[in-house]
Amino acid sequence: MSNNIYFPPSLQGFEPKRMVFSTWVDHLPFAYDLVAAIRPELIAELGVYNGLSFFTFCQSMVDHDIDGVAYGIDCWEGDEHTDAYDDSIYNEVVEHAREHYRGNTYLLRMFFNEALQHFNDNSLDLLHIDGLHTYEAIQEDFTNWYPKVKPGGIILFHDVMAKIKDFGAWKYFEELEQQYDDVFRFNHGFGLGVMRKEGGAPSDEPLLRLLFSKDEEDIKRLRQFYVHAGHFLEARRQATFWRQSRKGGKKGGQGKADQGKGE
């Protein structure tokens, strides 16, 4: 374990501009810090739904003056895991993107395979796979989109600890852990898998060094750190909500305790 102190941007004043119900809430500090570390020129997210993870990527790009573009790809119709929903969620996402990220955020309302033609091979710095969570769907999304990621680029897989219904992300990610060297898994929440595509120049960023360290103590402490970071963010959000409520602010919060469906 190195003696260097890791003090990421998420602990230095990160306040999500969008907070809606989603199981992604446990991983927001990491998402924010990852974008700050890799400074992506091009991001693609497969499965945006209500935009919690996507807009965290976008916010980090703005906050850290990153000259990049983020594409959110979704049909916004629902699937067998989220059930069908109306256009209200899509309209909310469009409005938030227009208000906060005009010019560096684009929403593609289409199937993932239809969007492939809009991206060159070896062009994505960050790919987030969070669509239908069956084994077959995850396998198809990874196989089709892997060539679009730059050598050294990062691929995220949500729900890699969710062994419910017919979710298969956990099983597919376990197979990837056996096939590739630079793979990391957060176990808290519903889980988040992180993979670095082979190739590219090595990075000196502390977060990336820790993510793909082979030191068991590094791995253990990084996991513990982001468990606590998620708890800290949620506690701060709850405190802010109650302060606003006591002052007569808007009633009714958004977050993990709300009722609804996650991504």
Automatic annotation (TrEMBL):
Residues 243-263 are annotated as: Disordered. One of its GO terms (biological process) is methylation. Keywords: Methyltransferase, Transferase. PANTHER family: RHAMNOSYL O-METHYLTRANSFERASE. This is Class I SAM-dependent methyltransferase. GO terms for molecular function: methyltransferase activity. The keyword Calcium does not apply. InterPro entries: SAM-dependent_MTases_sf (IPR029063). It holds the Pfam family Methyltransf_24. Coiled coil: none annotated.
